[in-house]
Amino acid sequence: MNKKEVAEIKRLFTPDRTPITRICGCYVDADKNKKTKMKEAFLSLPEEEMFKYFEILKKTLSGTIGRNLLDMEFPLTEETGGGAQEYLMQLKKSQLKDDELLDEFYDKIIENFLYPENYYIVIVHGAYDIPKKASDGIEMFDASDDVYEFLLCSICPVKLTKPGLCYNEDTNAIEERIRDWFVEAPVTGFLFPAFTDRNTDIHSVLYYSKNPEELNADFARLLLGCELPLTASSQKETFNTLICETLQGECTYETVKTIHQELNDLLDERKDDPNPPALDKNDVKRLLMENGATEETLEHFEEEFEQSGGNNQTALYVSNVVNRRKFEIKTPNIVISVKPECADLIETRMLEGRPYFVIPADDSVEVNGIPVHTMQRQDEDSTEAI
Question: How many angstroms separate the CA atoms of 309 and 292, rounded?
């Protein structure tokens, strides 16, 4: 799924447009006991409660594709009898009306979701009449041919509110606030089937993780039968390792700067593209060849790519491997950080046999927040005084 497709589903979570037919929930305590369950027709909920659930559902489709939102394909083994995809298809077909299937679903989550505190499982069923789009992109709601039937699941921590004081209007006094259990924003969840090319994709699922560095891979594999891709930091680490191992002696400051500039330029060129740019194995290899890698150094590239955690399906999202906010140079004692577009201001020079990074200093220089004169300005003032 791309950004536009995710946004299209999120826009449905309003009272006047919602395609949600049914909502179910299960509150689980820290000892993995089911404390309470609910099953309701969604439109029968009080309006205020409905809005709270909309917030949870929108959060489950929030974040960055490739970091918080991950497209995963089901292995063929999971699409046969007894597989995760086949089970989810049954659950979707039941429209969450089958209590036995629902309990089995809750049990699967409770068994595989490792969380030490209380949490609330929310799952909704929806059916969206997909409007056609005119050539100018305007939706034609009276020209719908296909229906996107889906399940959206959110798993939310439930925690005690913090102790404190509050104003009691009935007694007109400041009193100790009553602590209650509060349902927080989801930490993980999924959308099944995926909404790919604005239609049903039963072979894929969109997985959500609030923390992109804690994807809970075991949970995704055991519940959904899918292998998660590399985390954002692992993608960056893989990319950096490939540059270092492949370029070897050609891995100079200028080369690395050029590679990062090219990738930042790619992000700029495709900033309006709903599909975030990604590099597969061949893209990375071509990038390295264009920046000094020789046939000899590329001889073991594929082996190194696999050892770094990649495979033929691995995609390294460009936004994960380059930093859009800063270009950083580190030595054991000094850190230099500039905006990526200003990286050309830093030069490398040999002075008295030692390599140096040279940074131009203009009239606007501050040290610990204090404006100072540069060395050149001080020398000029001294010359004028003579």
Answer: 24
Largest CA distance in the chain: 94
With 0-12 / 13-18 / 19 or more C-beta atoms within 10 angstroms meaning exposed / middle / buried, residue 318 is buried
Q: Are 105 and 91 in contact (CB under 8 A)?
A: yes
Residues in contact with 347: Cβ distance below 8 Å, sequence separation at least 6, in sequence order: 357, 358
**207's tokens:** 């997985």
What is the DSSP secondary structure assignment for residue 117, as one 8-state letter? S
Please choose, from the candidates 258, 226, 247, 233, the residue with its C-alpha nearest in 3D space to the C-alpha of residue 316: 233
Whether the link from the prior residue into 193 is cis, omega within 30° of 0, is yes
pLDDT tens digit sequence for 191-242: 999 999 999 999 999 999 999 988 888 999 999 999 888 888 889 988 888 8
User: Helix (H, G, I), strand (E, B), or coil: what is residue 371?
Assistant: strand
Beta carbons within 8 Å of 182's beta carbon, 6+ residues apart: 158, 159, 160, 161
Tell me if 158 sits within 8 A of 182, measured CB to CB: yes
Q: What per-residue confidence (pLDDT) applies to 194?
A: 95
Do residues 23 and 122 lie in contact, with contact meaning Cβ atoms separated by under 8 Å?
Answer: yes
Stretch 279-305: mean pLDDT: 83
* Alpha-carbon distances, residue 142 vs 12, 15, 196, 314 (angstroms): 16, 19, 21, 40
Summarize pLDDT for 318-330 with one digit per residue, the tens. 999 988 888 888 8
Given the DSSP bridges, would you call strands 119-133 and 139-160 parallel, antiparallel or unpaired? Answer: antiparallel
Closest CA to 148 of 213, 74, 200, 201: 200
Average pLDDT over residues 242-256: 84
Give, to the nearest 10 degrees, the angle between helix 281-289 and helix 232-247: 40
Picking from 216, 225, 215, the residue whose alpha carbon sits closest to that of residue 114 is 216
Amino acid identity of 288? L
Tokens of 364: 């606007």
Q: Report which of 5, 16, 22 is spatially closest to residue 152, judged by C-alpha positions.
A: 22
